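S1.2 Input.
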Amino acid sequence: MSTPSTNPNDVLKRPTEDPSDRIATEMDCPESYQSLHHGEIASSLDQAKTARFGTTTDAFWGGVRDGRGAPAMVLFAGMVGFGAMGRTNGFDVWFTTATSFLMFALPGQIVMLEMILLGASSLTIALATSLTATRFVTMTATLFPMLHARDRNKALYAKVHLLAMTAWAVSLKEFATMEPKHRLSYFCGLGLLCWLISIPGTVVGFLIAGSVPMPITLGLIFINPLFFLLTFTEIKVSSYRLAILLGSIAGPICYLMDRDTSLLTAGFIDGTLAYWIDRKWIRCYDQVKRGGV
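S1.3 Output.
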């Protein structure tokens, strides 16, 4: 009996199975979905290669344009508050402005001024300031892997100075709209503008310190974290929103228990809990939902 001949072209035209179309099982959820969930912040973004920018120069100026609105104004307001705080506590304009230029990390700058006023040693000041900067570890670990492979080199050690809460939150949201090869240029344009705007903001705050009430000064400082929070809620990753919700609950409770360690304790508790809930339930639910079950 003769068998029907097989056309090689028909074989090539057969559709291949898409792993994302499979129905999830309990065995699939913890491990196999890890890469699928990670795609929300990395892999899927690499595939979203829309032609938003034609060249890296266009991407750079695109970052500048996106930063000259709310991000720059919010950062400027925060630095105005810091400059006023520096003058109120007896620091000169050169030292106050130098911290914005060299550190470019508002929480660390505030901690350093407070530690100096308390008469702490240089080692203690360095340790306390470094502790406030630990947030940059997670910020770089989530943002820079989204860059093109050719851009992940030693030059990033210099460009990472442009990283701040504002630039990180905006870049994390906007990277999905551009090709990976344009993301670093976009980040540099956005981050450079935010860094440079911090200098005049600090000077202006220092000069008007006497005419600005202290409650307004402190309010200006907290505008930057508020903008970061509002921007972060727009990122469509359930675990991020869950962490924010849990933090708003755990923060006041931890503050009443021990205000000195409340921020660190609340962040550790709600961050860990959000991560555990995400891995235990949210990822499996999202995979089943995508599978059409």
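S1.4 Remarks. The CA atoms of residues 193 and 219 lie 23 Å apart.
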